[in-house]
Structures are given as C-alpha cells and as structure tokens.
Amino acid sequence: MKVCVLAGDGIGPEITAEALRVLEALRGDGLDIEFEHALIGGCAVDATGDPYPEATSKLAREADAILLGAVGGPKWDALPREQRPERGLLRIRSELGVFANLRPAILYPELANASSLKPEVVSGLDILIVRELTGDIYFGQPRGIEVRDTQWGEQRVGWNTMIYAEEEIRRIGRVAFEAARKRSKKLCSVDKMNVLECTQLWREVISDMAADYPDVELSHMLVDNAAMQLVKAPKQFDVVVTGNMFGDILSDEASMLTGSIGMLPSASLDADNKGLYEPSHGSAPDIAGQGVANPLATILSAAMMLRYSFGDEGAALRVENAVRKVLAQGYRTGDIFEPGTTRVGTRQMGDAVLAAL
Ligand code: IPM
Ligand code: MG
What we know:
CATH class of the largest domain: Alpha Beta
Strand order of the largest sheet: 2-1-3-12-11-4-5-10-8-9
Number of helices: 12
CATH architecture of the largest domain: 3-Layer(aba) Sandwich
Order of helices and strands: EHEHHEHEHEEEHEHEHEHEEHHEEH
Distance between the termini: 21 Å
Largest sheet: 10 strands, mixed
Bound molecules: 3-isopropylmalic acid, magnesium ion
Shape: globular
C-alpha cells in the first residue's frame, strides 16, 4: 500500500511523525506499506506559491491512502483566498472526491474528567458524525465579494451559495445509513429545513431513503436544536448525518464532549474507500515545534486508515487498544492532563503507544 504523507504546518509534522512510527512498527508484522512525503498548506505556499502543488496532487492521486497532519497558521493569514493553506485542504478533498467524512467522538473512560461537561452527562459517549465534505456552501457557486448598490448605498457585499444535488445527498445518506446499521441502528439527520430550501431537499431525500433501511430508526433535527442537544444530552445520539457546514461546526462541538479535540481522528472516504485521514483538529501554531501536542488523534486516524483503506480491522484494533492502554497507564499530553496523571510530550506519547503495541 502506498501512503502519501502530507504533514503540513504547525504541529502537523510532529504529530504525523508519531503516527508514522506506529504504522512502521506494524510493518514488521506483515503490513506492506510505503510512504511518500509531499507538501500541502502553508509550507507548500512558501516553497511553490501554491497550497496544493501539482506534484502533491499527483502523489495523492496515485496513493492508496493519504495521511494528513494539519494546515494553516497566522503567517499566511494575509494571503489572498486562493493561496491560503486551507484552500489546499479543500482542493485535495474535492479533487479526490472524498465526500464522506467520518468523525467519531468517543469518550475514553479515563478522560471523563477532562470533558467540560459533567461525567454523568458524557460517560460512555460514542457518537459518529458523518459529515458531507465536498459540497454545500463550502464549494457552491456563485460566490464572491464585490461592490454593489445596496439600501445603504454603494458598498461591498459578500455572498456564497448553499447547494446540494439529490444524488450528492443520497450518497452521503447511504454511508450514514450503512454506518448506523453496523452500530446501534439510530440515525439523526441534521438540517435547517425551516429556513433553507437546500436543506429542505436534504430532509426530503434522507426521508425517502429510510424505506430502504427499515431496520434503522431515522430522526431529524434542526441544527440549532442539535447544537443544544449535543451539550444537554449528548448520549441520545449515535450516528449523525449532516452537510459540510453544519458538520464542521457540530463536529468541533462534539469533540469537546470527549475532553479534547486532540483525541479525535477522522476519515474522509470516496465511493471506493480510498481515504484521506487527518486529525479533526487544526495546526495549533501556538504550540508548534514545542513537542507538546497530542499525537493521539493522528495515531487514531492511522488506525482508521488501516480499517477503511487497508481493510485490516485487526491492525486497526491493535492501534486503538494501544491508545486505550496508554490512557489507562495515566499518560497525558497537556490538553488532557489532570493532577495525578503523568504529563508527557508528543514523542513520549508516541513511545508509550509503541510500547503498548
Ligand atoms: C475541518 C477544518 C476545515 C474545514 C478548515 C481548516 C478548512 O475546520 O476539517 O473541520 O472547515 O473543513
Ligand atoms: Mg472544522
């Protein structure tokens, strides 16, 4: 298997290094895996002027899977939109057609106190957010900023287009229904159908699909209510399916239920399970280069790669169990540290996972 490694910016290189050590350790056990490194995001802008250079695109297209760290940072904030590091991320998602973004939010029992919610509200939490990743207002045309005549006189207006085609909704719906089937058979679809036509269509299409999945209990929720319910009674959810924009917001919210966004992996899959794997968090420029970032979200993303792109459930479980073990042993990076546990840096956390493996 060929894995294209895109470490990116900020803490990206530190955390991907630990995930690669974990994958390399498994290589000894019969996993046939090769790595190729390329640039994406701000580092790619610095080197080539383009956040997603052609050389990177070629490697990504040829690879069986992609492991990505994180992109962005204040250094590139003033750049025009097309050159911003995030543009690189949006382009690779779109080019590879990885429309199904799986974001599990699991509360490890050892981290019950790291959550900002009461332990009884979050204990045992295990949610899967299925976020559509290549459509919606993120990519809809037309979009722009231009000077127009308005009721306040001539001034700049900014606009975007929220748009979904039926088939685009259906294919993410299928992923979500199938995932629900393998879990507790409950699916909640989140929209804003009381205001937005685009999401009214979303609700109609998802509702129509329910007939094909009689074993799955489908419910619908408006996004504002979903945001509230997620902090009020998060355990009512199992699989949640939603569009790109709402999924972006709700997955950040869900991540904090688990104590730290530093724990949350993600997989973005196309129709053939070719995947882009990245932690759900960003590049954390404030702690970059200090060796203190939590590598577990990236290590768990590598586990998702083993599961979905390599079809190696056994290896995926080994990595996930190793992560559980280091948490049980009391190792904590700063984001999940609490008195009585052992504070470790990025590399030491990687060492602990390797030892547990
Ligand atoms: C995410 C991030 C990205 C997104 C940004 C960095 C473009 O927030 O993966 O959730 O909005 O999709
Ligand atoms: Mg986000």
